[in-house]
Design goal:
There is one protein chain. By secondary structure, this protein is an alpha+beta fold. The protein is 54% helix and 8% strand. The protein contains ten helices and four strands, in the order E-H-E-H-E-E-H-H-H-H-H-H-H-H. A four-stranded mixed beta sheet has the order 2-1-3-4, with helices on one face. Helix 1 links the parallel strand 1 and strand 2.
């Protein structure tokens, strides 16, 4: 059996999602850090793994997979994680919730975009945090309203974790990191509590996997 290897960065939202899924699957893996702050994602050896120069990259089942949502779909299909409901309407709702974060909030708040914004403004004090808050809070406010349009308890789509939960927790981490207000979003906070108490989520937290010097 081939070894499962995850090339990731401890604070990467996309990597965080995949760590949760691997934990849900009970898949033992070896983590190989790719330090985005040092530009290691642009090194030739990593570009050979992923021409986009992004994390995560997952070596599993003799395959090399990129793009977190594609990886989650593979793990869901091959490990029967139940990340998407079987009912077509509920499945579409779960995907909409997940995409509201992974497709709409995350791309404008990733490291490359924020770094370029800082560069354009001559690294003015606080501009990166301002940028993050500008997009994270409205996005999560919309997510809160979306949660109200279906069964939500204790997780985003019922009594087991699904795809939107895996996308939400990394975004909550980012909200707290950058000071985006979320204390007035009760549905979102209830989901956070349920996820925080789940072992697969707890073991995937950035604080739990941060490399130690």
């Amino acid at each position: 059996m081939t070894e499962t290897v995850l090339f990731d960065y401890w604070r990467s939202s996309a990597s965080y999602r995949v760590r949760i899924a691997l934990n849900l699957a009970g898949t033992v893996y070896r983590a190989v850090p790719v330090d985005l702050t040092k530009g290691e994602q642009r090194a030739p050896d990593h570009i050979a793994r992923n021409p986009q120069g992004l994390v995560p990259v997952l070596d599993i089942d003799g395959l090399r997979l990129t793009q977190s949502l594609a990886i989650l779909d593979y793990l869901d299909t091959t490990r029967t994680l139940g990340l998407l409901p079987a009912d077509p309407a509920e499945r579409a709702r779960a995907q909409a919730l997940a995409h509201a974060i992974a497709v709409d909030i995350h791309p404008v708040c990733n490291l490359r975009v924020a770094a370029y914004v800082a560069e354009l403004t001559d690294n003015r004090d606080g501009v990166r945090a301002d940028w993050m808050r500008r997009f994270i809070r409205p996005g999560l406010q919309a997510f809160e309203r979306m949660l109200a349009n279906g069964d939500q308890s204790p997780f985003c789509c019922g009594d087991t974790p699904t795809l939107p939960d895996l996308c939400l927790m990394p975004q909550i981490y980012n909200a707290r990191r950058w000071g985006a207000r979320i204390d007035d979003l009760p549905r979102l906070l209830a989901v956070e509590t349920a996820c925080r108490d789940h072992p697969a989520f707890a073991a995937a937290r950035p604080e739990a996997v941060e490399p130690q010097d």
